[in-house]
Amino acid sequence: MRVLLLLAFCVVAALAQDSAPRLLSLPDPKLCAARPKQWNHGGHNYFFSWDQADIGLETVAGTGETKGKKVDWLEARNQCRSRCMDAVGMETEAENNMIFEFMKTHNITYIWTSGRLCDFKGCSERKDLQPVNVLGWFWSNTNTKMAPTNSTPPGWAAQPWSPAGHFGGPQPDNAEYDINQTSESCLGVLNNIYKDGIKWHDIACYHKKPFICEDNDLLLQYVQQTNPGLNL
Ligand SMILES: *[C@@H]1O[C@H](CO)[C@@H](O)[C@H](O)[C@H]1NC(C)=O
Ligand SMILES: *[C@@H]1O[C@H](CO)[C@@H](O)[C@H](O)[C@H]1NC(C)=O
Fold first, then answer.
1. Domain C-type lectin, which positions (predicted)?
2. In which band, very low, low, confident or very high, does the pLDDT at 22 lie, cut at 50, 70 and 90?
3. Which domain holds residue 145?
4. pTM
């Protein structure tokens, strides 16, 4: 049985360290009803931000060309959450394979997921999350704990964390912290950037990337209950 963390709101406080507090977005019923349903897996809808003109693309000033918009980790979650979705969480190997395959066939260099390190207020008191780089990672979309990072997850055929990163060693390695004390607290999937195939990497949350959104059951239930007539 996976352990629920229920620490979603602490993430917000942790991200607010260097500027005004930034909050998780509330779902917008209209955006939820109109959310992109690009593909379906296990009863959830998904979309890739750069495949959605009104969400993931922007016009370059001057030239009029369009290019893919990149956002930081919290903004990726909020773009999804306003639509009753959240950044994708790969709780099962089948879902992870599906995301890796999508990135491979669409030649996508990198994405944000909802993966987050519990390294904010309240985390250090949790003995079950120590050592945090091994036991402290969770999917923030479902508040689901990840398997220990230092071995292949039980029942999975392969280790999704990369064997290679900035310093050449296995992920997560918190490499940017060693460079300038910026924690690599968010989980991105990188496509062969370190000649390592498609793999999970710990990355500082301010970096900007496109993202994949996944339906969020709690937000959908909440919006349905408060808007009984709405067709979600
Ligand atoms: C895949 O993406 C990379 C990086 O954006 C690009 O250099 C390469 O040409 C692309 N390959 C294909 C087959 O589109
Ligand atoms: C930390 O180092 C990275 C990688 O060199 C750089 O991109 C980032 O801007 C630096 N951050 C700070 C706060 O200096």
1. 73-214
2. confident
3. 108-232
4. 0.91
Any ligand 2 atom below 6 A from CB of 180:
yes
State whether the beta carbon of 176 lies less than 6 angstroms from ligand 2. yes
Mean pLDDT of 2-23: 51
Indicate whether 183 belongs to any domain: yes
The number of distinct structural domains making up the chain is: 1
Q: Is residue 164 part of a domain?
A: yes
Residues 48-102: tens digit of each pLDDT: 999 999 999 999 999 999 999 999 999 999 999 999 999 999 999 999 999 999 9
pLDDT tier for residue 19 given thresholds of 50, 70 and 90 = low
Does the C-beta of 179 come closer than 6 Å to ligand 2?
A: yes
Cα–ligand 1 centroid distance for 204 (angstroms)? 24
Q: Return the HEC string of the chain.
A: CCCECCCHHHHHHHHCCCCCCCCCCCCCHHHHHCCCCCEEECCEEEEEHHHCHHHHEEECCCCCCEEECCECHHHHHHHHHCCCEEECCCCCHHHHHHHHHHHHHCCCCEEEEEEEECCCCCCCCCHHHCCHHHHCEEECCCCEECCCCCCCCCCCCCCCECCCCCCCCCCCCCHHHHHHCCCCCEEEEEECCCCCCEEEEEECCCCCECEEEEECHHHHHHHHHHCCCCCC
Check pocket membership of 150 for ligand 1, CB cut-off 6 A. Answer: no
pLDDT at 17: 47
How far away, in angstroms, is 57 Cα from ligand 2 center? 26
